[in-house]
Amino acid sequence: MTNDKRQLLEKQIPQMCKAVDSLAWSLKRCLPLPIASLDAAGQEKIEALTVRFVRVSDILIQKIFRLVDDLEMNHSGTIRDRINRMEEKGLIGSARDFIEIRELRNAIAQAGDDDASGTLYRDVIRLSPLLICTPDNVRHYLGISVASAGM
User: Fold this and answer.
1) Strand, helix or coil at 133?
2) Distance from C-alpha of 36 to C-alpha of 133, rounded to nearest angstrom
3) Which of 18, 31, 74, 131 is the most buried (most CB within 10 A)?
4) What is the pLDDT of residues 107-123, one digit of tens each?
């Protein structure tokens, strides 16, 4: 069973890396945008960033972190507990930051297109770098090289 989980996790790593690359590309395009006064093109760019932020958050927290827990036979607790365990393992720098990422992800999911605010967008821009650097920690923890991870 553990070997199957390890293989599944290793198959998820390239998906994670591809999603993170897309997030990083979108973030780079959005950094110079004036959030308070976005034109249609800027709005489209920031919405793409937000969608990618949610996707990477879900891949990391719901897939990767869950599989890491499964590998170590730790199936108990809440998402917050899982995030705390990832901090203890060194996969993330701060559980508090990832709890904020999760809360932001939920706020984005609940907000409609018209309800999305400059505050949400600023938070996505502020927290995206934390998601972008996490795959390196995951690969290091699992002993997977960048070349074999599909990067």
Assistant:
1) helix
2) 27
3) 131
4) 998 876 555 677 889 99
